[in-house]
């Protein structure tokens, strides 16, 4: 796969998963910086102008 230009590095596409879901990939650098792991639960909340994704806590 070709390397993306630096100005396109954080542009992502939404991908349909099944009938009722949409998926989004996150840049690996961001995931590593946050210390997140594969299959970790996250909270998704609609906020003004976008969405907020953060670590899920009980």
Query: What general form does the structure show?
Result: globular
Q: Gyration radius, to the nearest Å? A: 13 Å
Oligomer: single chain
Number of strands: 4
Q: Write down the domain tally.
A: 1
> For the terminal residues, how far apart are their CA atoms?
39 Å
Total helices: the number is 1
Which blocks of ≥5 consecutive residues have pLDDT under 50? none
Q: Structural class, from helix and strand content?
A: mainly beta
- Amount of helix: 10-25%
| Mean pLDDT over the residues | 89
* SSE series: EEHEE
The largest β sheet comes out as: 2 strands, antiparallel
Q: Going across the major beta sheet, what is the strand order?
A: 1-2
**What percentage of the residues does DSSP assign to strands (E)?**
25-35%
Question: Which key phrases capture this entry?
Answer:
12% helix; two-stranded antiparallel ribbon; 1 helix; 4 strands; mainly beta; 58 residues
Please describe the topology of this protein.
Blueprint: E1 15-17, E2 21-23, H1 28-34, E3 42-47, E4 50-55
Antiparallel strand pairs: 1-2, 3-4
What does this structure look like?
The chain is mostly beta strands and 58 residues long. The chain has one domain (9-55). Helices cover 12% and strands 31% of the residues. The protein has one helix spanning 28-34, and strands at 15-17, 21-23, 42-47, 50-55. A two-stranded antiparallel sheet has the order 1-2. A two-stranded antiparallel ribbon has the order 3-4. Strand 1 (15-17) and strand 2 form a beta hairpin. The longest helix is centred in the middle third of the chain and has 7 residues, at 28-34. The chain is globular, with a radius of gyration of 13 Å. The N and C termini lie far apart (39 Å). The mean pLDDT is 89.
């Amino acid at each position: 796969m070709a390397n993306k230009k630096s100005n396109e590095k954080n542009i992502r596409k939404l991908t349909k998963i099944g009938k009722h879901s949409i998926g989004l990939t996150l840049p690996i650098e961001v995931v590593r910086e946050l210390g997140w792991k594969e299959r970790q639960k996250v909270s998704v909340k609609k906020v003004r102008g976008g969405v907020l994704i953060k670590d899920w806590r009980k």
